[in-house]
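Two entries, shown back to back:
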Amino acid sequence: MKEEMNTPSKSPATVLGSEDSFRLLVESAKDYAIIMLDLSGHVASWNAGAERIKGYRAEEIIGKHFSCFYPAEALQRGLPEQELKAAAKDGRFEDEGWRVRKDGQQFWANVIVSALRDKDGTLRGFSKVTRDLTERKQAEVQIQQQSKEIMELSTPVMQVWQGVVVAPLIGSLDSNRTQQFMERLLGRIVETNSPVALVDIMGVPTIDTQTAQHLVETISAVRLLGAQVVLTGVRPAIAQTLVHLGIDLSGIMTRASLSAGLQVAFDILKLQVVSKDSSH
């Protein structure tokens, strides 16, 4: 009886050659635009992902220069050429920025350009892999906008009387928040032509050297506009801290409460509040 021989199963490498496997991988990567460029930057190959992301069919784009994927401002900066030079020099270039689809719509892209060299090290062309990250970028912009709106709500600047603006501070002050607060306060003073600004720090939990320095810088900027500042909400603990830190507030008017500061503002403006029930 003839003995049966078990035929070993073929490995994936024997089913498909390495070149065929690579081609299959490229064509199936629908979330990535994978293209090949010649030495001068003209498109030599185009996968299905590139068609989906960029909008061109292969027969429309092969042979065209890849600079057509860039917005006008990027072309003015010579970005396409810079990418190829960087990839040729370092072997790889990665960047994120705006790119353009066939219909002219811009999208935010992660781009990786790699140099393709033969065994002798001779540069033969470039591969370019692009991912569409527009949704992530839009989410980041939305978060930044929300943070800006929250910042504006936490540092309001209000006109409480003709010639008097009030800026109540709530929470800690860092460099970024101080810069935004200063810009809002200065802008409001100019807009309302107010000669007096009340900066209330009752809602600031603690004062350190950096916070105190930020306050002094803000007050100095207000003074450059010709306005006077009254620092209100100076609690005993805050006063002791400022003394301990050696912050010189001798040239700054301070009051313990906002109402006391408002009275100082009235005195500066030579105004007097008279009750309606007062006898004449």
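entry 2 starts here
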Amino acid sequence: MSDTDSGARGLSVGWIGTGRMGAAMAARLARADVRLTAWNRTRAKAEPLAEHGCAIADAISELRGLDVVFTMVSTPADLEQVLLGEGGLLTDAGHVPDVVVDCSTVSTESSETVREACAERGVAFLAAPVSGNGKVVRAGELSLVVSGPEETYQRVAPLLRHIGKSVTYVGDGDVARLVKICHNLLLGVVTQSMAEITVLAQKGGVSRAAFLDFLNNSVMGSVFTRYKSPAFVNLDYTPTFTPTLLQKDFDLGLAAARQLDVPMPVAAATAQLVQASVSSGRVDEDFAILLDLQAANSALELKPENTAVDDGLGAADEVS
């Protein structure tokens, strides 16, 4: 047994939030034989985890006596509710977990509020936002960035390494939140640039599939450009990350840039295009609709190319 396995299996672990991302992340822990108990507001969304040996809690209070509890929720309000609201994880001061690890994407300010609440109750807190989507998690390609007390990080690191392929500790406090916001600014900028060059190539007579095949196999290709290519080629905008969520992150990122006196001209221009995607009303689709907007502004009519495109995440298809 590796040090990672023994360290993880020696901890009792809880999980709050089993949406698309949370369920996939929790499943990786359960399949690694971690003693896991999961809770979700809608119990039915947590129940499939039982197939992997996970216990399903009826109330958050069942998680209070565990060593480590992960949270993966949608908004800062949700995070404060599950921790500090009625029946929340931290509302019984005499009965709390040792460590809370939050993997949600929230602002630095929200993270600081939760960290202070944890400290008041003697609970260690790690901010551990992630890069990826549900399919990335299932393929074992998730990346995590973590901040908080280093001693706590070292204790929890074996669990984090079961969840993702890459775990980066960046320091104390809530700096991991800034790292994640910076990451998502680049996510938007790269996607907009990818839309622009793809439209340029197509308008010059090159199919999107051919252009992106060349790009992905060149030095300019990346894991991200490859797994976004099927959406660009076949116009499948099943959401992995919506324009509204991306807009929120651009707002947070540009606010941080103002606070730190960092000019961000490219990010600021992209923010306006992300705003246009939200204003189009297509807020329930993937943010890859930036391609559609670029094509419309270029007088180019897009049609699905109905071409099989490898997204580079085939390992996810082998995991139930």
